[in-house]
Design a protein that fits this description.
Elements (H helix, E strand, L loop, with lengths): L1 H32 L4 E3 L3 E4 L15 H5 L3 E5 L6 E2 L12 E5 L5 E2 L12 E3 L20 E3 L5 E2 L5 H7 L2 H4 L3 E3 L5 E3 L9 E8 L3 E4 L4 E10 L3 E6 L5 E7 L2 E7 L9 E7 L4 E19 L3 E2 L3 E10 L3 E6 L2 E2 L6 E9 L2 E8 L8 E9 L2 E9 L32 H27 L9 E5 L2 E5 L3
């Protein structure tokens, strides 16, 4: 026993030492890739050494290592002056970034294009004189710190006042005016510096398939904003006509495939951005794109896919007669995707009575559509035929019939005859046991010493 315990201990010790070596090797590898002025761990990089400074973000040995970094902290770096397009390209999971008390003077508009998870950005106490809102337009930053920078009182920083609101006062954000004086950002007012506005008309669109229509976007703001139409790829043909701060989008022969498409008119200048959106509501008759063979899952299902606006009403026919839906037969819509409703006619334990051609009827005020499919759930047990004709079908196979079970009618007959015979047998036992007792008042013959004797009741 002691030898076995010692062997087990040695194995555990070997595994532990191997794991420790792997951890130390990983730490050494990270340390080898890390600049001398920084410290690196699996998820964090910190560069605070002022004597052995850095000029740009550290580049680790592999993309995987940089992909694991979530926090970068840089401080006291007198040679760190810019964040360029590709500096943070491989830090895709970066959530916290601090560059403080350095000489940061420039941030590219594409600096954070690959850092979609960035939430905390601290650029405090640097040398930034301006910063564009377009740098952050695609991010969901919850905490932006900009205090301690020599910001110039210009139209280009007005977005900070709008974005930060009361937080600008909390950070004591100030800007330097032309006369050299400092002004609180929340009190900054400049001429010809207005956030843009965009208004789209009509604000609601409800038209029938095949119609033409015009969407008009009116913009305002100073400086004059740039106007952009944003839309999901349209099937319908369109043209854009612009004049000054007004733009028109002409849509021709609207397709039902563009139903629920979102169209946005966006206006932006150096102060900020504003947009207006409309959803295309295109009315069209039903179209049943799929009606397939029945299959069995938890229930039997006849699957279908169809479209229409407004949502079509659905009815089913079996052998040309309406299907009465209830707890055991019902229409279920499971999903709406790719502009279509997807569902099935659900049947719970159908029999041969439910066999036949099923017709799906879809209708709304603009038209109707129909499709038919044959469904076979069970052979009619009362029909003539050979025993090789299956009564049930196994849904897990390729229509291979199972051996037919016993005829249920024959089973019922055999069980009934057996029950009657057993009951008669019990009655005979009672008569034989108690028939000679006069208190039962039974008249008839009983056997006594194998001689029949007539018994007369009193």
């Amino acid at each position: 026993m002691e030898g076995a315990e010692m062997s087990a201990f040695r194995r555990c010790s070997g595994v532990f030492l191997l794991g420790l070596c792997c951890v130390l090797m990983e730490l050494w590898r990270l340390g080898a890739a890390c600049p001398a002025s920084c410290t690196c761990s699996g998820t964090r990089i910190a560069c605070v050494d002022q004597e052995r400074g850095i000029m740009a973000f550290p580049v680790l040995q592999s993309e995987l290592e940089m992909d694991n970094i979530t926090d970068i902290y840089i401080a006291n770096q007198s040679s760190f002056s810019s964040i360029n397009d590709k500096d943070l390209h491989y830090y895709r999971n970066l959530t916290n970034l601090t560059v403080t008390n350095s000489r940061l003077t420039y941030v590219s508009r594409l600096a954070f294009q690959n850092n979609l998870k960035l939430q905390y950005l601290n650029l405090k106490d640097n040398n930034l004189s301006s910063l564009s809102w377009r740098i952050f337009r695609h991010l969901n930053i919850s905490n932006l710190i900009l205090s301690g920078n020599p910001l110039h009182c210009s139209c280009e920083i007005m977005w900070m006042k709008l974005w930060l609101g009361e937080e600008a006062d909390a950070q004591e954000l100030q800007c330097i005016a032309e006369d050299g004086g400092r002004k609180p950002l929340t009190r900054l007012k400049l001429p010809h510096c207005m956030v843009p506005m965009a208004t789209l008309s009509p604000s609601k669109v409800m038209v029938q398939e095949g119609a033409d229509m015009v969407l008009t976007c009116n913009t305002s703001g100073e400086p004059s904003p740039e106007l952009i139409w944003k839309m999901t790829p349209l099937i319908s043909y369109y043209e854009i006509e612009a004049s000054g701060q007004v733009s028109e989008l002409h849509l021709y022969n609207l397709s039902s495939l563009d139903n629920n498409c979102k169209i946005t008119c966006s206006a932006g200048n150096i102060v900020g951005e504003n947009e207006s959106t409309v959803l295309l509501n295109i009315l069209f008759p039903p179209n049943i794109s799929k009606l397939s063979d029945a299959y069995q899952d938890h229930h039997w299902c006849i699957p279908f896919s169809m479209s229409g606006n407004p949502k079509p009403k659905l009815r089913w026919l079996l052998n040309g007669e309406p299907v009465n839906e209830g707890p055991y037969i019902m229409t279920m819509i499971h999903d709406f995707s790719e502009r279509e409703y997807h569902g099935c006619l659900q049947l719970d334990s159908p029999t041969h009575i439910n066999n036949g051609p099923y017709t799906l009827l879809a209708s709304n005020k603009y038209g109707q559509d129909r499709k038919t499919v044959d469904a076979h759930f069970m052979r009619d047990p009362f029909e003539g035929g050979t025993v090789t004709e299956p009564l049930y079908y196994d849904p897990t196979t390729d229509d291979t019939p199972l051996d037919p079970p016993e005829d249920r009618v024959a089973i019922y007959v055999v069980v009934g005859v057996a029950a009657v015979a057993f009951t008669g047998f019990l009655l005979m036992l009672v008569i034989l046991k108690f028939g000679g007792n006069s208190k039962f008042g039974i008249k008839g013959f009983v056997l006594f010493h194998n001689v029949p004797v007539e018994v007369v009741g009193r």
